[in-house]
């Protein structure tokens, strides 16, 4: 378990996101040197409240997939490429009073926000040293493999390649010097919105279970 993040990296994130609609801070969670590092997009409303990654509705789906291949929340490392909840501001009419009220629903983080957190994520990956990285959904996948990577094309495939890391100036990306084992997966929320994907996602997780056993030999 990571005790705490480097203060200078946290300060850098704070400075770069000061004018952004981001709230809270949910740290990564899990053991060092795990078989699997699961990488999500960003915390949602529930994660912001309890400070536990993937603890909302999609998290329940994820725990089921993890359990199906013999792992648990305590045996994998769970994090996200953006560590604060991105929100938008919407004015809606209250159904009872008719008054305009302000709501802050979740949204997808921007590429600039993902880049702002890049050095922190790089440090976390280097510290955790997982055997295999599992990006969940396009945001996490494109942070690792570039903007042209697509979860619809790459889900369930075992990859061994270099990944994007923050460059020396932290204003863009460069490719890593070493290769990583990666298996992209659909985000578990996809099951909630498109039940037709459930058989595919379950098959992908079973494939992941087999691949990680092979890598451990």
In short:
Helix content is 37%, strand content 20%. It is an alpha/beta fold and 217 residues long.
Describe what you observe in this structure.
With 217 residues, the protein is of the alpha/beta class. 37% of the residues lie in helices and 20% in strands. The protein has helices at 7-16, 45-50, 57-68, 111-116, 118-128, 138-145, 151-154, 189-193, 198-216; strands at 22-23, 36-40, 77-80, 85-86, 90-93, 100-103, 132-135, 159-166, 173-182. A hairpin with a 6-residue loop joins strand 5 (90-93) and strand 6 (100-103). The mean pLDDT is 94.
Which short descriptors sum up this protein?
9 helices, alpha/beta, DNA polymerase, iron, two-stranded antiparallel ribbon, iron-sulfur, 3-stranded parallel beta sheet, 217 residues, Uracil-DNA_glycosylase-like_sf, Uracil-DNA_glycosylase-like
Write the layout of secondary structure elements.
Layout: H1 7-16, E1 22-23, E2 36-40, H2 45-50, H3 57-68, E3 77-80, E4 85-86, E5 90-93, E6 100-103, H4 111-116, H5 118-128, E7 132-135, H6 138-145, H7 151-154, E8 159-166, E9 173-182, H8 189-193, H9 198-216
Parallel strand pairs: 2-3, 2-7
Antiparallel strand pairs: 1-4, 5-6, 8-9
């Amino acid at each position: 378990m990571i005790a705490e993040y480097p203060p200078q990296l946290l300060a850098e994130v704070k400075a770069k996101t000061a004018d952004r609609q981001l709230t809270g801070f949910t740290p990564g969670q899990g053991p060092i040197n795990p078989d699997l590092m699961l990488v999500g997009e960003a915390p949602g409303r529930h994660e912001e409240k309890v400070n536990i990654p993937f603890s909302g509705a999609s998290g329940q789906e994820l725990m089921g997939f993890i359990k199906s291949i013999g792992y648990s929340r305590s045996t994998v490392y769970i994090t996200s490429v953006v560590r604060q909840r991105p929100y938008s501001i919407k004015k809606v009419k209250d159904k009872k009073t008719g008054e305009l009220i302000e709501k802050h629903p979740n949204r997808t983080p921007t590429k600039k926000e993902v880049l702002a957190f890049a050095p922190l994520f790089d440090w976390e990956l280097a510290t955790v040293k997982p055997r295999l990285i599992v990006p969940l959904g396009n945001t996490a996948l494109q942070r690792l493999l570039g903007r042209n990577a697509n979860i619809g094309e790459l889900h369930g495939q075992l990859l061994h390649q270099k990944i994007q890391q923050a460059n020396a100036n932290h204003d863009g990306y460069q490719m890593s010097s070493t290769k990583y084992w990666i298996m992209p997966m659909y985000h578990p929320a996809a099951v909630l919105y498109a039940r037709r994907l459930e058989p595919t996602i379950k098959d992908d997780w079973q494939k992941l279970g087999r691949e990680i056993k092979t890598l451990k030999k």
